[in-house]
Amino acid sequence: MIVTVPSSPYAGQKPGTSGLRKKVKVFAQANYAENFIQSVFDVVEREPGTTLVIGGDGRYHNRTAIQQAIRIAAANGYGRVLVGQGGILSTPAASNVIRKYGASGGLVLSASHNPGGPDEDFGIKYNIANGGPAPEGVTDAIYARTQTIDRWLTVETPDVDLDTIGSTEVAGLTVEVIDSVADYADLMETLFDFAAIRAAVAKGMTMSFDAMSAVTGPYGVEILERRLGFAPGTVKNGVPLEDFGGHHPDPNMVHAHELFELMFSDAAPDFGAASDGDGDRNLIVGRGRFVTPSDSLAMLAANAHLAPGYAAGLKGIARSMPTSAAADRVAEGLGIPLYETPTGWKFFGTLLDAGLATICGEESAGTGSDHVREKDGLWAVLLWLNILAVRGISVDQLAREHWTKYGRNYYARHDYEALPSDVADALIGELTAALPSLPGKAFGPLVVETADSFGYTDPVDGSISLKQGLRVLFVGGSRIVFRLSGTGTEGATLRVYLENYEPADGNLDQETPDALADLIAAADAVAGIVRHTGRTEPSVIT
Q1: Pair 290, 260: CB distance under 8 Å
Q2: Confidence label for 540 from pLDDT (cuts 50, 70 and 90)
């Protein structure tokens, strides 16, 4: 029997670049999560009796929200729900399940790389039938519905056993608890030369993978240790925990410092990697060599043909606007298109669906391809392993060879977190007004060539996205990008992206802070960061 629960709207349920993210205590309010889920079901197009995928990263409140979602799905006419065992599916694995089983969409319960726990973050994102995040037209419609919703639908039924693989009937809905790992691991075997990697491991190749007590632990153990033969214990922090062990599951040099310390020590294995809360980001670090996400995208694209899944070559490369232009030079060298999009994986979806791009990446440690419609942390790790195994060289050697061919984009992102929204808006507003006057101005040795507010017209569907970040481009190929992030749960985060290009015959062996010193000074001079925020240093540098 369907139960109608009267409700009223909550303000602020607008999905950001990766769904709706708030503190757990916000989601735990009466009707809050239910309103949002019902708004999704009220808006999205689907056939009666269709399949819905539900999974999350195992963070606190995950199981509670899944039980709510199952009941609401039953009341809204879904015929089947596929849910990962224990409520767990990495974000790329959820995308794969949606695509493999012909689901009309899925709910991904995660706040990605944000901390977890009773006082921390939670999130819900809707992915469409292609497996990718809902485009802006859908998220805008969901948000509009949250502002008028007056009821949500449910059924009265006991909780579903999420830990036992098998099927359960819930008020006419079939709930299938599936192996969270198997489908994804099988897909990876079709893309990469597991035999070549196993051979390299047998010859002594070593690695360390930090799953950060997050979702990729079980995937890493199955693929890296069981299928590829790396030693037991190669996967560190491999058990998903509701609070990620009290750590911040963001794979960068701050939060994955133990991995960095290992990789720059005498005891370093050949290869180091990490993934984040929901498994869609990656960190790549060789013995004594950190590879920035922007460089990783470029290096993977330049060598992807060495993996069976990409042996025919790439159709195109896509990157988010703040990501460095290193991939642009690879695309030019390969004679293929390069697409520069706004931040948010959903902007890659139309390019992938149309066959215009094969590999995509974001500077925020997200890389992926057309195998799913999400960025994919373990996919990037496995492609790196495939390339290193076939070429028989180290990460450092590969990076140096790449730079001597394409030049080097020294790169960093400075985040100023939890700024008062009015302060952040004032900074961006003042800088936007100043953009037309910047070309020709000198900031130290840097001369502004162009400055603009980035807008994007999708080449497939013609949709337009404006105000996607402010760009200041300098003569010679260096640049600064300023952007307010939509992935936090409180206040505003100002992201400042710094990029110094050195051509192939330039100085390719500088320390990154030294290479960026002039740009850091220029960023403050251009935008008045200290004057507006009172901050003399960023919260995080990645």
Answers
A1: yes
A2: confident
pTM of the model: 0.94
The mean pLDDT value for 335-360 works out to: 95
Q: What three-state secondary structure class fits 88?
A: strand
Decide: helix, strand or coil at residue 123: strand
> Cα–Cα distance between 366 and 355 in angstroms, integer?
20
Query: β-strand 2-6 against 20-23: which pairing, if any?
Result: unpaired
Phi first, then psi: what are they for 19, rounded to 5°? 90, -165
Beta strands 166-170 and 151-155 are: unpaired
310, 358 Cβ separation under 8 angstroms: yes
- Whether 111 and 244 have beta carbons less than 8 Å apart is answered as no
What HEC string does 369-438 produce? ECCCCCCCHHHHHHHHHHHHHHHCCCHHHHHHHHHHHHCEEEEEEEEEEEECHHHHHHHHHHHHHHHHHC
Chain position carrying tokens 């999905």: 15
Per-residue pLDDT for 460 more than 90? yes
Q: Is the separation of the CB atoms in 308 and 329 below 8 Å?
A: no
Whether 107 contacts 73, CB under 8 Å: no
**Closest residue by Cα to residue 465 from 473, 474, 457:** 457
pLDDT single digits (tens) 87-125:
999 999 999 999 999 999 999 999 988 999 999 999 999
Residue 441 — φ and ψ, nearest 5°? -75, 145
The two counts, helices (H) then strands (E), for the chain are 17, 27
Nearest to 81 by CA among 105, 61, 46: 105
- Whole-number Cα distances in Å, 183 to 63, 257, 344, 510: 22, 32, 25, 43
25, two tokens: 């205590």
Contact 139, 15 (CB under 8 A): yes
Reply yes or no on whether 112 is catalytic: yes
Residue 295 near residue 304, CB atoms below 8 Å: no
Predicted pLDDT at 486: 57
pLDDT digits (tens, 9 = 90+) for 379-426: 999 999 999 999 999 999 999 999 999 999 999 999 999 999 999 999
Identified catalytic residue from 112, 275, 296, 364: 112
**Going edge to edge, which strands form the sheet with 366-369?**
338-341, 317-320, 359-362, 366-369
Rounded to whole angstroms, how far apart are CA atoms 457 and 207? 42
